[in-house]
Amino acid sequence: SLVVLFGATAGAYGAKLGSDERELILLVWQVVDLHSKKVGTLHKSLVKADNLDLSDQCREVSGLTPEGLGKAEPLDRVLQQFSQLVSSDLKVLGRSSYTLCSDGQLLIRQVLHPETSKKNFLLSDCFYSFYDLRKEFHTCYPSSAAVKDQTIKTMAEYLGLGTDEAEEDFGVWQVKTMVAIIFSMLSEGCNHIFTEPETVKYKYETGPCLLWLLFSFFFFFLCSSKSETVDSETVIRARGLPWQSSDQDIARFFKGLNIAKGGVALCLNSQGRRNGEALVRFVNSEQRDLALERHKHHMGSRYIEVYKATGEEFLKIAGGTSNEVAQFLSKENQVIIRMRGLPFTATQEDVLGFLGPECPVTGGKEGLLFVKYPDGRPTGDAFVLFSCEEYAQNALKKHKEILGKRYIELFRSTAAEVQQVLNRYMSTPLIPTLPTPIIPVIPPPYTIATGSIRDCVRLRGLPYTAGIDDILEFMGDATGDIKPHGVHMVLNQQGRPSGDAFIQMKSADKAFMVAQKCHKKMMKDRYVEVFQCSGEEMNFVLMGGTLNRSGLSPPPCKLPCLSPPAYAAFQTAAVIPAEAAALYQPQALLPTTRTPQASAAAPPTVTYYPAQAAQLYMNYTAYYPSPPVSPTTVGYIAAPPGAVAAAATATHTPILPQPGALVRMQGLPYNTGMKEILSFFQGYQYAPDDYNGLIQLSDQARSVLQAPKEWVCL
């Protein structure tokens, strides 16, 4: 048996039904026995909406009024009556089972399922399977109009059914006409059989979306299996999601539409945190088109923007090639929780003990996945599998509880997020790229100005995007009066530009003229303040002190130190050729301790600068870490043998003139700075003032341009 069903909302009608989130206000239905071709009683029921403000189109088409709807029953009661009346009619016809039949997909997918999901009550099983009369009609009559262009009226006209819409109440005419169309399809000339109903998934299926890597320098991306591709016509991008929303929340937002297995991919920002966007893959383009109609529908109090996306975008977020991840995610229908902030020494036993017996992990240790860097170091992140929602909720209650000496954050996660996090950390190259080509340059010796002579200028209020090019352009003709290596950009504790810079001029007069000429001159829509200052004042700031209207605040230590070189003036990505990989050996920056004889015979280290920097302004250091200075060592990378031989005859002062003067520190916290290291060595004698007291250790896993984990102290 079929139950022919028709409905209307308080808003749009026809092809836009459900696109405006308006509530259901009318249901009309009738049972049809396909074997005996008998029908049950036709029922019409008004539904009381929470918002009785009807659109003009609704008033005109339906003839309903807010007053009449105010006396109706709410949706949950109407649906209960629907089930009872259908069961009663089936008994009269001698039948026991039925399937719904509606005019298109909108009433079931875009109205009933989303509305009941928002109102937190469940639909009965009959609403998860239905026949689309338009598709069935087109199958029976292939020469009729396309499915998307069909309406009840056009189908009736195609069959020549003489029904007058004006003679019947709204909804009643539609159901009677649909029944007449069905009987025509069952006639001897057609003998149509209803065999393949549309289905609505009961719940979203989680699971991995794997990328298979094929060689021959090409990547072929396949999802779930090697025969299934990701069609760009099935993917959308949802924007404006609450940051704490999970894949299940997104699936609930698209309730009524069939999302592909593992088809929700939450997007992360550069810090690994959710950015309020997600890519969602549906089972076919028809479902995707329906999803686009939910543009600016609401999730809680926030409206969600829905746009088209591509399969390539989805694969970039949801795809992965790790066998470890594939094995971890192979257990289906698991709830995934992400743990963040774990101690680096935490073991599987520690995590299981932290979670406790009230939230057992699926498979014990096999249900844990620690996120690590390519060299095996832990990141402090882990993913955990739970077999049911109850265990996951118990785990989430431990949010910000203490493990060791650190509080642990716990969040709901997804298979796609697991892939993204692993991809982000594992894709970090062991040999970071630098701008190419690189050319050897022997820099002339230079020193940082000291004393009270006011031959420096301070630039304050620089745009955070300003680089060396912008400063030189800002200085104009005065660029020629800058001392070699005299540009020093001040960075904050995060290694980002602070908006300040110091410039050493050739004389106090030149500094005075620049301050007068450039003060409050515009740079990228911002005016920049320029003040004359002394080398001593500049050094105070570059060493970590402050300079303001109240005067100087001294730095924590007056010893010359080299801070982490975390800022690069040039960030052009490049691929290092194979022959250049030998440049990045651990000994590139700091040779091992050697005897005085060996030290004296060692070839000089050669400084390398990007070709762009050397070509434009050879006298200026390519990288400007701060505090405190533009160092002589930060650009040092081992040069090819030819370049070293060419430099061997040049006058050169060794970086480490005193053998055995090094102490290597390992296992430092990642946020360790200069102040903490100096405090640790309080009371010990440091190197003389003409040497850098702290030098970053370089090896294949850490470039000299990254924030270090290890330091070498002179």
From TrEMBL:
<dbReference type="InterPro" id="IPR000504">
    <property type="entry name" value="RRM_dom"/>
</dbReference>
<keyword id="KW-0507">mRNA processing</keyword>
<dbReference type="InterPro" id="IPR036397">
    <property type="entry name" value="RNaseH_sf"/>
</dbReference>
<comment type="similarity">
    <text>Belongs to the ESRP family.</text>
</comment>
<feature type="domain" description="RRM">
    <location>
        <begin position="335"/>
        <end position="415"/>
    </location>
</feature>
<dbReference type="InterPro" id="IPR050666">
    <property type="entry name" value="ESRP"/>
</dbReference>
<dbReference type="InterPro" id="IPR012337">
    <property type="entry name" value="RNaseH-like_sf"/>
</dbReference>
<keyword id="KW-0508">mRNA splicing</keyword>
<protein>
    <recommendedName>
        <fullName>Epithelial splicing regulatory protein 2</fullName>
    </recommendedName>
</protein>
<dbReference type="GO" id="GO:0003723">
    <property type="term" value="F:RNA binding"/>
</dbReference>
<dbReference type="GO" id="GO:0008380">
    <property type="term" value="P:RNA splicing"/>
</dbReference>
<dbReference type="GO" id="GO:0005634">
    <property type="term" value="C:nucleus"/>
</dbReference>
<keyword id="KW-0677">Repeat</keyword>
<keyword id="KW-0694">RNA-binding</keyword>
<keyword id="KW-0539">Nucleus</keyword>
<dbReference type="GO" id="GO:0006397">
    <property type="term" value="P:mRNA processing"/>
</dbReference>
<dbReference type="InterPro" id="IPR035979">
    <property type="entry name" value="RBD_domain_sf"/>
</dbReference>
<dbReference type="InterPro" id="IPR012677">
    <property type="entry name" value="Nucleotide-bd_a/b_plait_sf"/>
</dbReference>
